[in-house]
Hints:
The structure is a single chain. This protein is α+β, with helices and mostly antiparallel strands. The protein has 16 helices and 26 strands. The strands form 11 sheets. It has a 4-stranded antiparallel β-sheet with strand order 1-2-3-6, with no helix packed on it. It starts with 6 loop residues before the first strand and ends with a helix.
Amino acid sequence: xxxxxxxxxxxxxxxxxxxxxxxxYMQFSKKVEFVSRPDWYHDIEYIDEMHxxxxxxxxxxxxxYFEVNLKKGEVLIFSAxxxxxxxxxxxxxxxxxxxxxxARDNFKDCLTNAAQQFFVRKGDKLEIIAGYPWxxxxxxxxxxxxxxxxxxxxxxxxxxxxxxxMVKTERDGLFPNCGTNKEPxxxxxxxxxxxxxxxxxxxxxxxxxxxxWKNYGPTMKKILYTFKNGTHFNIKxxxxxxxxxxxxxxxxxxxxxxxxxxxxxxxxxxxVEINALWxxxxxxxxxxxxxxxxxxxxxxxxxxxELTQKSFLDTFWDESRNYLADYVNGDYKxxxxxxxxxxxxxxxxxxxxxxxxxxxxxxxxxxxxxPRGLRTLSPKNPVYKGIYxxxxxxxxxxxxxxxxxxxxxxxxxxxxxxxHKRSGISMVENLIQGFExxxxxxxxxxxxxxxxxxxxxxARGAISxxxxxxxxxSIIKQIDNFNEQNS
Length: 487
C-alpha cells in the first residue's frame, strides 16, 4: 500500500508514504535533482530492540536520492519538514539557529548544549522533554530538572516560561504525570511538591518574592488545601500533619514501575521524600504569606510545620539504625536503604537536623554511591538487581531495585558540601569530572537516564535524560557558588 511516488517542490521533493500521512518535504539551500529509485530493504534488524524484548525487524523504503553539484568548500543546507518552506531563507535560518547553540568543545559546554535540546516550544507554551528518544513532557521530571536546565545557566526567564506553562495544567491539586494534552495522566503525588521546590529555587535565584506570591500563590494555596482536604489516589494530610498517599496497583512516587497491574515498589502510605517536600512546601508558602500579609492563609497553616516536623521525625527516624525509613504504612516501616531519604534531607527547608543529615549521608555514601549516581537500593538487600537488561518486565524489576540514577547526585552533593564544607569540594569535583567519559558512551554529548548498579556501571535507558543533565549542571553551579562564597 506504500506510495512510492513523489512531487517536485522548490529545491527538492515531497512524498507521502501512506494515505492520511502528512507530506514529507525535503528541500535544500540550492537547486537539486531528485532521482526516483524506490527500493525496499527487507527485515532490517535492530539489535538493541531485540535485546529489550521488542519487535526488532522492519522493512524500510528508500525512495531514491538527490544529486547536486557543489564547489569545494560550499555549504549545502538540508531541511526535512511536514511543511513546505522557502529554501531561499535556509542559510539565514541555519546561521541564526547555529548562533544560539553552544559549541560542544568542552564537558560543561556539552552539558549546556544538551540542556537546550530538552526545551520544546508549542505556540505560547514552553515544555521540557523528559528524555530522548522516547519520553515526552512529564510533570515530575519537568519540575525536578527545570532549575538545573535554566537557573544553573543563569536563565531565569526561561524558567518562568516553563512554570507559567505548567501552572495552567494543574487539576485537583495535581500536575500531569505524563500523556497527551487531551488525555493526561495525573498519577503523581510528588509532582506538585517538586513544583514548590522549583518555585522556591526560582525565588532564591531571582529574589522576586512578591512576583512569585502574586503569580503562583493561588496555585500554591490550592495545592496545599487540596492535599490537606484530600484528592485522588487517597492523597490526604492526616491529623499528624503528614501526607498519606497510595492506591493498589498504582505507583505514585518517582519509583513508578508497574508490571501486570502491580507496582514493583508500591510505597503506599507515608513516603519519606514526599513528606519532607511537603514540610518544605508548607514552610515556604507560609513564609511568603506572612511577608505579604495573607492573614487567612497564615491562620490556617501557622501550626502545621511544627506538627509535620515532629511527626516526620517520630515516623521515619530510628536512632539505632541511624537512617530514615523509606515509607510507613500503619505498623509497617520499610527500612530498605534507598536514596529517597537523601532527597528528604536535601530539600531546601528540611525537617531534620544537621546530625540526621550527616547520618543519612554516611549510609548513602557507603551503600548507594557509585561514579554514575546513586543506586536505588542497597546491594545488601536480597532483592537488589545490579544489571538493567532483558525484556520489559525484567528491566522494570531492576528499574528501582538497584539501578543507578544520575539525577539523585544533586541531593547527595548538596548535602555533602553542607556537611563537609571546603573539605568536600574535591570529592564533589571528582564525581563530576568522572562523568566526562560518559558523554561519549551512549548519547553523544549528553548523559543517559540510568546506569547499571554493578561495575562497570554501563549506560542504560534513554540516551539523553533531562534530569541527568540538569543534576550535573546544578552540581557545577553549587561548586562555583561555594567557591565564590568561600574565596
